[in-house]
Amino acid sequence: MDRKPVSVGVIGAGGWGKNLIRNYFELDSADLRWVCDLDAKRRGQVQGQFPARFETANVDDLFQDPELEAVVIATTAPSHYPLARRALEAGKDVYVEKPFTLSVEHGRHLVDLAERLERVLMVGHLLEYHPVVVKLKEMIDGGELGDVRYIYGQRLNLGTIRGDENAMWNFAPHDISVILYLLGRAPTDVSARGQSYLQPGIEDVVFLSMNFADEVMGHVHVSWLDPHKTRRITVVASERMAVFDDLESTEKLKIYDKGAKVNTDYDTFAEYVGLRFGDITIPYIRSSEPLRIECEHFLSCIRERTTPKSDGLDGLRVVDVLEAASRSLANNGAPEALRGAVS
Ligand SMILES: NC(=O)c1ccc[n+]([C@@H]2O[C@H](COP(=O)([O-])OP(=O)(O)OC[C@H]3O[C@@H](n4cnc5c(N)ncnc54)[C@H](O)[C@@H]3O)[C@@H](O)[C@H]2O)c1
After folding, report:
1. Residue 150 and residue 106: Cα distance in Å, rounded?
2. Pocket test for ligand 1, best of 39, 97, 161 (most atoms within 8 A of CB)
3. By the 8 A CB rule, do 36 and 62 touch?
4. Nearest in space to 299 (alpha carbons), one of 12, 27, 18
């Protein structure tokens, strides 16, 4: 049975918003109804390439349009909460870019509001839709790597310096969401250290560490002041190790059959720890644009009235970590317990 396309309005036609606009323009299951940006030049640019039915600088035009079903918010982080709140109150299904909100309190409010109004609420944790991350999750859950010991993410570059949020709030939601997704649980405590070299009070580089139950660790290094562009997530497990390098064009996931085991039966110290150096394998993973998969998922959740994989609670878990990490940053790296925003 043919279904009517979902009508979508995108707020924010900036560097990232235009990618969302392109996808909703191209997808048959979507009807790109509105593009909204305060900046007329940016609106003009996207309207030239991926025209929506209507354009505006005023978000009220979207909220007051009874024909509009879904609002996609791709503005800068401080406006996520007020815009998402108004969109939900207007009865729209809502997608919010990462970081979901800038506080647990605001995130919790949006989650409760969406639940009460029975609206779909999805957060743009893009990497949870990346075919490589999905494959890694399958391998971990299927026991193919053994017990996960620690996971670390590196998201580094020189540039894309922002003045409205630090490198942690800007980049780390990606790595935190992946680590929580792969482990299927939230950390018990978080610590973070960073420095602001370019703008007072806005950290350019942050080292964030998370402790999980069973001695599992997560670590995230983010920086926009680094010589190397790096987008890498490494999983070290008891049987195998995995590296996801998103800058590789085709061989993005490598599985290393490497490990170390403590032997109970040994005569010399050299025999106490046995190292294993095995093959490196590259699983075949069909490539497709993660953003397209994410947009299709949002549309399908709207049509089927189902809960997105990266729903408001998923967003809230990540904000809980970021908020605790901010307290730790302000407290010279002291460990901070999570507020337990989500069980
Ligand atoms: N998922 C990803 O991989 C990814 C990548 C980059 C950015 N992002 C996220 O996307 C969001 C946007 O980032 P960006 O790099 O495109 O920022 P940007 O500054 O380039 O663009 C933001 C746009 O929003 C518009 N805007 C702000 N407030 C508005 C309002 N009230 N009404 C209408 N328009 C408004 C601005 O005019 C601007 O054009 C951020 O939350 C960012 O973290 C996600």
Report:
1. 30
2. 97
3. yes
4. 27
Residue in 18, 41, 76 to alter for ligand 1 test, most ligand atoms within 8 A of Cβ:
76
Give the residue, by CA position, lying nearest to ligand 1 atom 25: 12
Q: Give the residue carrying structure tokens 């878990």.
A: 317
Residue 19 near ligand 1, beta carbon < 6 Å = no
DSSP letter at 167 equals H
Q: Whose CA is nearest to atom 6 of ligand 1?
A: 16
Contact 16 CB / ligand 1 (< 6 Å): yes
Q: Please tell me if the CB atom of residue 143 comes closer than 6 angstroms to any atom of ligand 1.
A: no
Residue 71's closest CA among 108, 36, 116? 36
Farthest CA pair distance, the chain? 78
74 CB within 6 A, ligand 1: yes
Q: Is 38 exposed, middle or buried (0-12, 13-18, 19+ CB in 10 A)?
A: middle
Measured from the CB, is residue 295 less than 6 Å from ligand 1? no
Residues 187 and 212: beta-carbon distance below 8 Å? yes
Residue type, 26: E
Per-residue pLDDT tens, the chain, 343 aa: give them.
568 999 999 999 999 999 999 999 999 999 999 999 999 999 999 999 999 999 999 999 999 999 999 999 999 999 999 999 999 999 999 999 999 999 999 999 999 999 999 999 999 999 999 999 999 999 999 999 999 999 999 999 998 899 889 999 999 999 999 999 999 999 999 999 999 999 999 999 999 999 999 999 999 999 999 999 999 999 999 999 999 999 999 899 999 998 888 888 788 877 788 888 889 999 999 888 999 999 999 999 999 999 999 999 999 999 999 999 999 999 999 999 998 766 5
